[in-house]
Predict the 3D structure of the following.
Amino acid sequence: MKIISTEFLVGAVSAKQYPKEPLPEFAFAGRSNVGKSSLIKSLLNRKKLVRISSTPGKTREINFFKINNAIMFADLPGYGFARVAPALQKKWKKMLEEYLSQRNPLIAIIFIVDIRRKPTELDLTLKEWLEELDRDYILLITKADKLSAAERQKQVKIIKAAFMGENALDFIIYSSKNHTGRKELWSTMEKLARHQRDTPFGA
């Protein structure tokens, strides 16, 4: 997709603050420091983007962006960052539960995992949560440039076995550094968005 316009709309902490435009929406979720900000910047071909922080644990809202006046991105707070107080983690959990269970325009979650890491309890909890809520997701295996081809193959096998559940639509190996996987992810999202436009919400 050629990016013509990118507009930050709102940083929301509750459903009443969500954008009202019924555009096809994709949410980005993953552990703190998994490379979520770099991924979004890579997708949008922007070196800097307002309201996206490179500091782990700093995003405390659901940040909504309108792309080309046609698609919505929702940047969800990263989870599992040790420096975040338990009370704030609890608040985030409630906020994300509300969003994932109630947001009608949401087509799929881009579920981001680091190719170098073994599946963690928090990652597996999110996968189980998405399955329970019947939310479709695309498994995005990022930081692919950090490993050799042989290491990538080994890690991808482990990650797919852990995370490719019934609601997994696809898996994509990605590198924000060299844009590996960018074309494939955009292609998948555009296909899902076209289908959503042809199928009214609630149908």
Notes: Residues 10 and 59 are 13 Å apart (CA to CA). The mean pLDDT is 86. The chain has one domain: 6-196. The chain is about 35% helix and 20% strand.
